[in-house]
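Long-time lurker. I teach an intro course on protein structure, and each term I like to show students one example going from raw sequence to a predicted 3D structure in token notation. This year I'd like something fresh instead of my usual example. Would anyone be willing to generate the tokens for the chain below so I can use it in lecture? Attribution to the forum is fine with me.
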Amino acid sequence: RSPRWGRLAAVGVMGLLAVGTLGFVTIRTVGWIAGMFSGPRIQGPALDIGLTSPPISIPVPPAPEAQISVRDVAERTINNWLSTKREAMGPDHNASGLEAALVDPALTEWRNKVNEGQPGSWHYTYEHDVEVVNVEPDDPVADALTVEAQVKEVADYYELGARNAALSYDQDLNMRYELIRQGSDWFVQSMTVVE
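-- Reply from a regular --
Happy to contribute to a lecture. Here you go:
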């Protein structure tokens, strides 16, 4: 007896369809079960994300801060010193800021001057105007600077609460300051009046 090829082909096709259907149903069932345990589903329209533009607006970064010039460093350091001098020689003789503005030998010199006075016996009031004329070297990474500056200093001397006109003055001074860097801070190391 010869096999019936038609019936055999039909059984083969039916078997393949059954295996395919069983595989499809299995994959869908596994996907559904996995979806239940994988967290919330995202609903709504798909995001419009492309490679040509970012999905959110990116702010423009600020311009880099301009590098501080040696002239700015010199002016800031000298003004800091003159502000400290105003406090140290003022009515309270507050010398606590000297270490933030001076290093030796200027620090010791000005400490001695401040210690000569007692609060209430004498003091100065100062007004200053500074113009930096020259700074050497013109190198922002230098650790020491020599600065020539014109300083207008108006000083009123008070003794026992009364202004002493003889010891008060208004001068235009040509000054040379030696500045030194310690860490990231600048200090006045010495100062000289240039004739």
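Some talking points for your students: The chain has a mean pLDDT of 88. DSSP finds three helices and four strands in the chain.
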